[in-house]
Give the backbone structure.
Amino acid sequence: MKTEILQRLVRARAEKCPVALVTDLGSGLQTLVHEDVAHGGFGLDREELAEVRRFLREDRSGIVEIGDARLFIHSYNPPLRIIIIGAVHIAQALAPMASLAGYDVVVVDPRRAFATDARFPGISMNGEWPDDALKQLAVDSRTAIVTLTHDPKLDDPALHVALRSPAFYVGSLGSRKTHGKRVDRLREAGYTEAEIARIHAPVGLAIDAVTPAEIALAIMAQITQVLRREPSAAVAAA
Amino acid sequence: MTYENNIPEIAAALRAEGKRVALATVVSTWGSSPRPVGSQLVVDETGAMQGSVSGGCIEGAVVHEAMQAMQDGEPRMLSFGVADEQAWEVGLACGGKVQVYVEAVE
């Protein structure tokens, strides 16, 4: 391994960028593949790049044989994280569920009565106003953001940061009507259609969920789908 | 998953101190192997190691090969396991197989 590649790898990890180190086991040459760019000792064709990105998405490492090449793909992904805006009833179900699924969980709510340790045992809480909290928490491409308060005073500031962040998932609780009003407010605030279209709303997969736990399940399922699916497949399913 | 380990950071820090280092990485496993694919070990020129590629059963042999790789600059693939006919005097107690890629950082 070249020291330069090692330094690039360490830098990508410090910046919490997903990156894969690809080693040609025949020649020992190595290439570092970022989301949008590859650096290193050999080029990868489209098929190889697609395979590397699939490994990154699935968060796994291993050997693949493509043509004559035997490549070891080593995925280095930052930890998955969910930031939940609103220490509400659904959040009480979603937080432990996300934690079980391997996410670091932060619940943000400036309202003292909601954000208590008794309601969220073992979950990390942030009492700042949502936009300040999201700035503090340095949202990256392995972060999902879910707003659950229903209250524009709290949800909108969160969306203002979320929509211009690299978060892989943004979802907002609320009926179609509530979401329609939200979209109007965001347009007025200067957000583009493409930015607004990032919001999954009504939040969660359509599984006819009723109870808070079922709604949490629908949200968790949708986050998983967005995380794991190929971008083209996600568009086709939308 | 692999983010839990900080082996690349340790290797880069050792390099920055001007030390020679080699990395060993689990690239494939079969059966019950103690450390998953992607697990890493860093070895410096004195033979000191950090990290792990098994539960301690093969580290000795891996360190030896890592020292060789630092000498000749050649990466190598090591295979360990009960069914392995190679002359490694080690095996995995758990009965699995593991392949470890060893490379010097240059």
In short: The first strand of chain A starts at residue 19 and ends at 24.
